[in-house]
Write the structure tokens for this entry.
Amino acid sequence: MIGKIVIGTLIIAIAVAFLCIKVIFKRNGSFASMHIHDSKPMRERGIHCVLDQDREMRRKSRLAVKEKVKR
């Protein structure tokens, strides 16, 4: 039982280390943004975040419910 926990912990530690290689060894390293609006291929195809698409459709439609703006 303890052997399985140690092996599982070791596998997770190795996976985290591989994920952090770019951040640790590269000067000013960082993870790439995973947001749709930051992806050039998605923008070229005209694909937007669902929130942006909803906002765009609300602006176009006369019958849409207006958004409440918190101030």
User: Anything to note?
Assistant: The chain has a mean pLDDT of 80. The helical segments are 2-25, 40-45, 50-60. The first helix runs from residue 2 to 25. The CA atoms of residues 54 and 60 lie 10 Å apart.
